[in-house]
Amino acid sequence: RTIESLGSLRSRTVIVRCDLNVPLADGVITDDGRIRASLTTIRELRDAGARVVLISHLGRPKGEPEARFSLRPVAARMAELLEVPVNFVAQTVGADADAAITGLADGDIVLLENLRFNAGETSKDEAERLAFAKQLATHADAFVSDGFGVVHRRQASVTELAAVLPSAAGRLVAAELEVLERLTARAERPYTVVLGGSKVSDKLGVISHLLERVDTLLIGGGMLFTFLAAQGHSVASSLLEKDQLDTVRGYLAEAERRGVRIVLPTDVIVAAAFAADAAHETVSAHAIGESSFGEAGIGLDIGPDSAAEFARVINESATVFWNGPMGVFEMEAFAGGTRTVAQALTDTDGFTVVGGGDSAAAVRALGFADTDFGHISTGGGASLEFLEGKQLPGLEVLA
Ligand code: 3PG
């Protein structure tokens, strides 16, 4: 259901679930991509004369207030971007929140404090979630679900709230779905998926699902070392998930059976320590233990030959989905692989999608613009689960 299904919104109080979970360093927002992505829906509701109540989580507080997870800086940034006041209430439910909501005039916007300061939001007990959702819904006439990054979560503000109010998907959720459906239902071939990030175990579902759909999988990031180890290579002190070795061997065998190419790096950058200024050198991916650092060596990025090969494959692809950095891009010495892959995505004529909060923050931190890519998804876990073919609870309730 889209916003149109809610009818006229003039003078109606509309509660909007956004994903304003932005990275912060010492209280300063380091990437405002998710705030920007939420603006289309908010502007539209405001223009329609709605009284807009914004709700979101930030980080993973454990059901009680923690100052470092406050949404206050987000309200300030949003007001700057919208160029209208965004009133912040340091409470999610209660007398202050009630007063702020009932005091709204048409077109006014209020942002409530972090949903996860309340145990009911993430409770495993459905009755508790429902009770919290009902509290949230007290003064609202309608609910718009626009936090794409959380639609894979069964949480009060995502699932139960949609059940207690007339509800609809917001513009961001609709736009994300359109792109991801294009990837699952009608991806143009050759279809290449670039996977990085640290853990294989986070990507298990998506890898096995992708083996049925893609032509090529390019593997970088910390998880590549478990792939190399599964092929029998020594990885010295690089990240290794020993308990995933059999699973990875299974993937390699299945890929071969299906004719899917899994491309692993042929060279890697190995460092003496996990530090921005650590001594480092480029070695063969099959001889990591033979670097000058011996068994202490840690692989922190794919090497230049591998990055060039990844770029070549990306350039020949009609569709590319990328999730997860290729190396420790926050440290300049180990950002080369991620930068080359990002550059290749911007150069190719194919349709490119960057999935995930972290990958999106990585490309912006490296100086790329959102418009350089076909689409930058605001959802990491959500976009992966969608590609896995899972039913997402936050979407099911809007169907
Ligand atoms: C994300 O960062 O992927 C979303 O905001 C969801 O956050 P969560 O993984 O803490 O539920």
UniProtKB/TrEMBL annotation:
<feature type="binding site">
    <location>
        <position position="116"/>
    </location>
    <ligand>
        <name>(2R)-3-phosphoglycerate</name>
    </ligand>
</feature>
<dbReference type="GO" id="GO:0043531">
    <property type="term" value="F:ADP binding"/>
</dbReference>
<feature type="binding site">
    <location>
        <position position="330"/>
    </location>
    <ligand>
        <name>ATP</name>
    </ligand>
</feature>
<dbReference type="GO" id="GO:0006094">
    <property type="term" value="P:gluconeogenesis"/>
</dbReference>
<dbReference type="GO" id="GO:0006096">
    <property type="term" value="P:glycolytic process"/>
</dbReference>
<comment type="similarity">
    <text>Belongs to the phosphoglycerate kinase family.</text>
</comment>
<comment type="pathway">
    <text>Carbohydrate degradation; glycolysis; pyruvate from D-glyceraldehyde 3-phosphate: step 2/5.</text>
</comment>
<keyword id="KW-0324">Glycolysis</keyword>
<feature type="binding site">
    <location>
        <position position="116"/>
    </location>
    <ligand>
        <name>substrate</name>
    </ligand>
</feature>
<feature type="binding site">
    <location>
        <begin position="19"/>
        <end position="21"/>
    </location>
    <ligand>
        <name>substrate</name>
    </ligand>
</feature>
<feature type="binding site">
    <location>
        <position position="34"/>
    </location>
    <ligand>
        <name>(2R)-3-phosphoglycerate</name>
    </ligand>
</feature>
<feature type="binding site">
    <location>
        <position position="153"/>
    </location>
    <ligand>
        <name>substrate</name>
    </ligand>
</feature>
<dbReference type="GO" id="GO:0005829">
    <property type="term" value="C:cytosol"/>
</dbReference>
<dbReference type="InterPro" id="IPR015824">
    <property type="entry name" value="Phosphoglycerate_kinase_N"/>
</dbReference>
<dbReference type="InterPro" id="IPR001576">
    <property type="entry name" value="Phosphoglycerate_kinase"/>
</dbReference>
<dbReference type="GO" id="GO:0005524">
    <property type="term" value="F:ATP binding"/>
</dbReference>
<feature type="binding site">
    <location>
        <position position="299"/>
    </location>
    <ligand>
        <name>ATP</name>
    </ligand>
</feature>
<protein>
    <recommendedName>
        <fullName>Phosphoglycerate kinase</fullName>
        <ecNumber>2.7.2.3</ecNumber>
    </recommendedName>
</protein>
<feature type="binding site">
    <location>
        <position position="34"/>
    </location>
    <ligand>
        <name>substrate</name>
    </ligand>
</feature>
<comment type="subunit">
    <text>Monomer.</text>
</comment>
<dbReference type="Pfam" id="PF00162">
    <property type="entry name" value="PGK"/>
</dbReference>
<keyword id="KW-0808">Transferase</keyword>
<feature type="binding site">
    <location>
        <begin position="57"/>
        <end position="60"/>
    </location>
    <ligand>
        <name>substrate</name>
    </ligand>
</feature>
<keyword id="KW-0067">ATP-binding</keyword>
<keyword id="KW-0963">Cytoplasm</keyword>
<dbReference type="InterPro" id="IPR036043">
    <property type="entry name" value="Phosphoglycerate_kinase_sf"/>
</dbReference>
<feature type="binding site">
    <location>
        <position position="153"/>
    </location>
    <ligand>
        <name>(2R)-3-phosphoglycerate</name>
    </ligand>
</feature>
<feature type="binding site">
    <location>
        <begin position="356"/>
        <end position="359"/>
    </location>
    <ligand>
        <name>ATP</name>
    </ligand>
</feature>
<feature type="binding site">
    <location>
        <position position="203"/>
    </location>
    <ligand>
        <name>ATP</name>
    </ligand>
</feature>
<keyword id="KW-0547">Nucleotide-binding</keyword>
<keyword id="KW-0418">Kinase</keyword>
<dbReference type="GO" id="GO:0004618">
    <property type="term" value="F:phosphoglycerate kinase activity"/>
</dbReference>
<dbReference type="InterPro" id="IPR015911">
    <property type="entry name" value="Phosphoglycerate_kinase_CS"/>
</dbReference>
